[in-house]
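Bug report (template v2)

What were you trying to do?
Predict the complex of my protein with flavin-adenine dinucleotide.

What happened?
Run completed; filing so the output is reviewed.

Input:
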Amino acid sequence: MSNRHAKIVILGGGPAGAAAAIGLARLGHEPLLVSAPRRQAAVEGFSDRTMQALETLGFARALDAVGPKVGRRAFWGGDQSRVNTEFVVDRKLFDAALLADVEAKGIKVLHERVARVIRSGPPWRVHLASASVITADFLVEARGRAAPVSSSERLQGPATVSLARVWRGVDETPATAVAGMRNGWSWYASPGGGRAMLQFLVSAEPGDLPKRHGLAAFYDEMLRASGLPREWVAGGEPMGDVVVRRANPICANHPLGDRSIRIGDAAIAPDPLSGHGVYVALGGAQAAAVTINTLLGKPENANLARSFYEERCSLDFMRLCRVGRAFYEEERRWADRPFWRHRSEWPDREPPHPPMDAFAPRIERRPVVEDGIIAEHEVVVTPDHPRGVWVVDGVPLAALRRALQADGQEADMDRLEKELERPCKSIELARRWLADRSLLK
Ligand SMILES: Cc1cc2nc3c(=O)[nH]c(=O)nc-3n(C[C@H](O)[C@H](O)[C@H](O)COP(=O)(O)OP(=O)(O)OC[C@H]3O[C@@H](n4cnc5c(N)ncnc54)[C@H](O)[C@@H]3O)c2cc1C
């Protein structure tokens, strides 16, 4: 048994934990990442945006582990379309590559399973399955949906599970497809080579699912009743057990604790139908890194850091839930079935993206990220940017607006360049941003 101490320990090395480790290292910290491989097979689809985020963070090996880009076929609401493209990703390979990237950047990774976490003297004690103990000053909870959270400490959407099976001997062409069904929806993903994963997303409300030993028969029943998914796996045979993954939307009420923070799915786990889970986990982890940097390096800004991080989590979660609800609403064929009805009504009736005239843009003092620290500045709050925008291309919007309004029609560019210490090109970009939102009248 070997014990060690870390200033910051990160539990879980999925996209969120790995991105937080890199973000913290960039800010001069030396986090210790503890992670055990995911136990079950999972295949997911990544958007271009997710790929760009991985590139920005320097995840070269993880990008290499991503499978082919395919056009997603969607059979939804009685229509057929091929609107989006996505990359097919084997999560076991991808997650291993994430950790290799983290280690290649000189960040310490312990490949171990966390058994128990206790809040005590140092202030954290992390007990590993190997019986070793890590003590830490600050704890980052990134174990995804496996991170413990009591029901009173979270907001939860309709209970949903994914029942998935790996298939072999299916069509060799890489492909993904999604289809609405009477009691759920299905997603098929094949990286090529005749292997694929077919999953059914169904209700997990009490009484809706059989016991574990009955899941294979339940899966077969879903497949028999489904027209399209049966065609997708035609000629193939399933391998191994049915893989069960919880898929309810979940949001922790307080993602930022005293000396701890929840990130990724441990903070907000979106409905898979809303997409972008990995993209959101990567972005949230970056926000968490500056939040931690502020708490440790500038504790007098702790309240600002809290409102920055908690507001970001709750706004992201509600937006993703509403995006998911809008997709459920589009599938009208079974609108009266409990599965579709519940999800078309949750979490509320608000639009995913408020209309541009929902309220008049205003200037407020809000927390923003400045040189890796959360500080307070004047920002422009608009319906499409509810947390506010501080700068565009380095130009502070509120100061520019004041200066332009003082100048009237004839903006003195030389003076603005000197006053704002930014080139004419950047000032013009920021001016256009304000004008597009009718902020220069
Ligand atoms: C059915 C389903 C389908 C999805 N499809 C997509 C998709 O197509 N595209 C997309 O972008 N998102 C998708 N998502 C969402 C995506 O999986 C998550 O949003 C994303 O992986 C969150 O990253 P994370 O790092 O927070 O958690 P995770 O990716 O879950 O990573 C957590 C890490 O912690 C490790 N861990 C857990 N417990 C322990 C422990 N006790 N000790 C040590 N290590 C531990 C795990 O092994 C894992 O490596 C889907 C989710 C579900 C449920």
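What did the reviewer find?
The chain is about 35% helix and 30% strand. Residues 160-246 form a domain with the D-Amino Acid Oxidase; Chain A, domain 2 fold (CATH 3.30.9.100).
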